[in-house]
Amino acid sequence: MSSVNDDYAELVLSVVEQIPPGQVATYGDIAEIVGRGGPRQVGHVMAQFGGGVPWWRVVRADGRPARSLEERGLRLLKADKTPLKGDRVDLAQARLRIDEAVNLDIPLRDAP
Q1: Sequence ranges of the domains in the chain
Q2: 3-95 has which fold?
Q3: Residues with Cβ < 8 Å from 15, sequence gap 6 or more?
Q4: pTM for the whole thing?
């Protein structure tokens, strides 16, 4: 992996590590917080390197956990006391607000 990809993965994982129990962010939210890439790039990072962070707190735009990990993700979300509506996170209650994300301790990216 190139250093740019390593840097991107580090940023994504740093944000995910800081999502508090009971809250979630979508793949798109993470991309917005990091300031580059998109939901697919975040998903790729999570699939490759997300095992060491609270991956279940990153959900699809419809509030569902990652496709291949839905059952396990829902169990972990319930353990976190995350508000759910059936098999989805209640994003209106549990979504990390972008204005809260400003306070996250993420490494500053280099200016272009």
Answers
A1: 3-95
A2: Arc Repressor Mutant, subunit A (1.10.10)
A3: 25, 30, 33, 34, 101, 104, 106
A4: 0.86
